[in-house]
Amino acid sequence: MANIISDEMIEYVGILAKLELSDEEKEQAKQDMGNMLDYIDMLNGLDTEGVEPMSHVFPVHNVFREDVVENADERDKILANAPAAKEGAFKVPKTVE
Amino acid sequence: MDLMSLTALELGRKIKEGETTAVEAVEAAFAQIGKVDQTLNCYVTTDKDAALKDAEKIQKKIEAGELTGPLAGVPVAIKDNLCTEGMNTTCSSRILHNFKPTYTAEAVLNLKKAGAVILGKTNMDEFAMGSTTETSFYGPTKNPWNTEHVPGGSSGGSCAAVAAEECSYALGSDTGGSIRQPSSFCGVTGMKPTYGTVSRYGLIAYGSSLDQIGPVAKDVSDCAAILEAIASYDPKDSTSIRRKSYDFTSALTEDVKGLRIGIPRDYFGEGLNPEVKEHILEAAKTLEEKGAVLEEFDLSLVEYAIPAYYIIASAEASSNLARFDGVKYGYRAEQYEGLHNMYKKSRSEGFGPEVKRRIMLGSFVLSSGYYDAYYIKALKAKALIKQAFDRAFSKYDLILAPAAPTTAPRCGESLSDPIQMYLGDIYTVSVNLAGLPGMTVPCGRDKKGLPIGMQLISDCFQEHKIIRAAYTFEKTRTYERCPLVQTPDQKGAIKE
What we know:
The complex is a heterodimer of chains A (97) and B (496).
Chain A: H1 7-17, H2 23-40, H3 75-79, E1 85-86, E2 89-90
Antiparallel strand pairs in A: 1-2
Chain B: H1 8-16, H2 22-40, E1 43-46, H3 48-63, E2 75-79, H4 106-113, E3 117-122, H5 156-163, E4 169-174, H6 180-186, E5 189-192, E6 212-217, H7 220-230, E7 260-264, H8 274-289, E8 293-297, H9 302-320, H10 338-350, H11 353-366, H12 371-395, E9 398-402, H13 418-423, H14 429-433, E10 438-445, E11 451-458, H15 463-474, H16 483-486, H17 490-493
Parallel strand pairs in B: 2-3, 2-4, 7-8, 7-9
Antiparallel strand pairs in B: 1-3, 4-6, 5-6, 5-10, 9-11, 10-11
C-alpha cells in the first residue's frame, strides 16, 4: 500500500468529519482510506496542465431573489422533529459553564 | 384484470375511461405488496390508509373532469430520499429513522398535481451511497428476478418495486448511476435527465453537483410521461435550469433513420462480461437495422471517471451530511458528555459504515494540504471528461453502451471489496460528471435469467433523441415480467 494513513491522520479526519470511531473502526478506516487513495492516485497519470477546474457543467451564476419571507411560520412542525425541544427552541446540552 | 401488470399510462387510461378506479389501483398495489414485499423488502414505509384517502379524492377529481392528465389516479412509489410532508423520510439511515418532513419535494409535488397517489417510500442504499441496496439500515432489498441476487442501487427499492409490480412506477435519484444501474439489474426502464431538469428541492442531498431525480417504469412511454410531469424550473433550486421545452412525449416516435450512434470502444474492453457485451451489441444492431448509423470510436479518459467521481461525490457528501448532528431531527445518542460529544456520538451511532467511509474520505480530500492534490485535480479531470463528451457529441447524436459491466451480483458479494463495487459504476458515473441525460432500456437476459440493460446517452437537453431511439428499440421486443409476478404460486418462484 503506497498510502500509509497514520493514527494522527485518522484522528484529524475524525475531528473534521465529527465522527467518533472505535479502535477497530479506526484500523478499518486506515486500511480503507489507504486503499482508496492508492486507487484515486491514478488521477496523477492525467495531464491537467492549464485545465480550469470545473465545478459546474453549465455557466450558472448566483441566483438572487428579494429578501422577503415566503414560507409560513412552521416552528411547531419543525420542532416536532427535534430530539429535544424547550420553549419553542431546540434543546441541546449546556455549552457554557 | 391484473391492474399491476399494466404500464402507468395504460392504467391511467383505464381509470380515465371508467374501467377501473384510483381506489381499485391502490388496493391492487397493496395486495401485491402484501404478497411479495416480505421477501423483497422494496419499501421502508407504506401508508395504505393515506393512499386510499388520496385515491378517493383524486378519483372524484377525475370524474369531475378536474384531473385529466395521463398519470391521474396511478399509484407511485417514491425513493426514501425525497421529502414527503408528514410521511417518514429516512434515506434508509438510522439517523433519520423518525424524520417527518414539513414539506414535500418539488418533483413529488409536481406528481401530486398530476394526480399521482403515493403508496410509500422505497428502500435504498443509506444516503444513496452504494450500488446494491445492501447498505440500508432497514435491511437489503432483493432482486425480484432472483432473490439470491441484489437489485442494484442505490434506487434498488424503486426498481425492484416496479419489476415486482408493487407500484405502477417509481421515482429514483441518480448521482453516479443509481437509477440506470438498478434498472438494468431489475429489467425495467429508468432515466436520469440532464442536470437541472428536475428540481432537487426536497431531495436529501448526497453529491449536489451530480444528483438528479428521474423516473423508473415498465417502458419508455411511461418514462417520458413521468419526466414531463416532474420536470420544471424551480427558483428554490439554484441549479434548476429553465428549459426551452418540457415536452418529452412527442419524441415517442418509431424512427431512428439517420440517427448517428457512437459505440465507445473503451466501454467494451476488459471487465465487461461477455454475455452483457453480446446483448448490447445485438441491441445496437437492431437499431442499425431500423436505420441508425453506427460507428465505433474512442471516448478516452474512461479510467479517470471513477476516481474523479468518488473524490467529488465524497467531498460534497462530507459537507452535505454535516447537518445531521442530533439537534434538529432524527437520531440523538442517549449518552454523551457535552454538545460536541453529542454531535460525534449521534453521528457515529446514526451513520452506517459506507456513509462514514465516504464522509471521512470527503473530509480528507477537502482538508488543507490535500485540497489541491485531490479535490481540484478531480474538478480538472471532470472538465476534461466533459470535453471528451463534447467531442463525441459533435459527431454523434447518441452514445450506446452497457449500463453495468455485469448482471446483478449475488447478495453479500459486493460490500467486502468497496473498490471492486465502485468499479461497477464505470459506465454510469461519467454521465453525472458531465451533467448528461442517460437511460437504461432492457435488452435481454443472461444464461442465469438475469436482466441486461442498454444505456443510451445524449448531449445535454437532447433527451428527445434518447427517447426516440429507446422507444424504437423497445418496439422490437415485448416487456418481460419477472418470474415472481408470473407464477400464481408465489412460493414456487421465490428461492429463499
